[in-house]
Amino acid sequence: MDKLVLIDLETTGTNAEMDKIIEVAAIKIENGKIVGEFCSFVDPGRSLTDEIIAITGITDKDLDGAPKIEEVIDKLKLFVQDYPLLAHNMDFDASFLLKAGMDGDFLDSLDLSCILFPLEEKHTQEYLLSNICGVTYNAHRALEDVKNLFTLYLKLLERAKEMDERVKGEIRQALRGSDWKLKSIFDEASDGQDEYLTETAQENKFCPKELPDNPEGIPMAHLMSWLFYTETGNLTEMSYWVRRKYDKFFRDVRVKMCNGADCNYFNKNERLF
Q: Judging by DSSP bridges, how do beta strands 33-41 and 21-30 pair with one another?
């Protein structure tokens, strides 16, 4: 996406009905670069618990003289303008922002990470930064967290560009009727090339030009999407053709999986959707 605001909050707890925001940070992104920063403490109108002080490092003294949430939200709205807001696990942040009177398009990088890194054990920001980005995660200060989120976001964009074109095509097809704003990432990441597809197929139904006799050189993502491609909810003639031509191959794969062996066919393309 060309324009986006990444946001992070620190709060007195996890319940938006009872707890309060104590820090807001946001960075404005245009064409993949940071063009602005926003950060403010917020007066919660109460003392912080020892637990929150330990987690965030924020103290009552830090919040002494801080503006009320209404003032901070007004300034945040001016900063954000009409840009979509992105957070990791946005449900949490959105619950506090909506309660405080902030509206707009709320997007979640967690959705992207689940699509782009489906084999990871966890999808917390801490885990992804450590295991995908190689970043030591020092959490729970809003500005640092949101800058770490920017690092993660860039990694997600990079992953989308590396993703097999066939898989991106299937994702775009699945999201065709969706109003999810992040789906544009898969359009922007696509170069529209696929050596197994005709030009007409790239534009329309992603049908293979010609099936090679030996399927072992074809990324598994291609084979599976050819196999399960449907037009009206039923198996198409193409899918039946693929199943018949590669019947032994698919049976061998199933046997190896059932035996718990390492199946290299699935390692031909790591980015399965």
A: antiparallel
Instruction: Give buried/exposed letters for 236-252 (b at 16+ CB in 10 A, else e).
Output: bebbeebeeebeebbee
Q: What pairing do the DSSP bridges indicate for beta strands 85-87 and 106-108?
A: parallel
CATH topology of domain 3-162: Nucleotidyltransferase; domain 5 (3.30.420)
Which range of 128-132, 164-168, 190-194 scores highest in mean pLDDT? It is 128-132
Q: What is the mean pLDDT of residues 243-251?
A: 62
Long-range contacts of 96-105 (CB under 8 A, 24+ apart): 96/9, 96/11, 96/16, 96/19, 96/21, 97/7, 97/9, 97/73, 98/16, 99/16, 99/17, 100/21, 100/69, 100/70, 100/73, 101/70, 101/73, 102/73, 102/76, 102/77, 104/80, 105/181
Quick one: pLDDT band at residue 35, thresholds 50, 70, 90?
very high
Span of 60-64, 195-199, 251-255 with lowest mean pLDDT: 195-199
Q: Is the overall model pTM greater than 0.85, yes or no?
A: no
Nearest to 106 by CA among 70, 127, 80: 80
Residue range(s) in the chain whose domain bears CATH number 3.30.420.10: 3-162
Report residue 42 as tokens. Answer: 């917020």
6-20, 89-103, 141-155, 164-178 — which is least confidently predicted?
Answer: 164-178
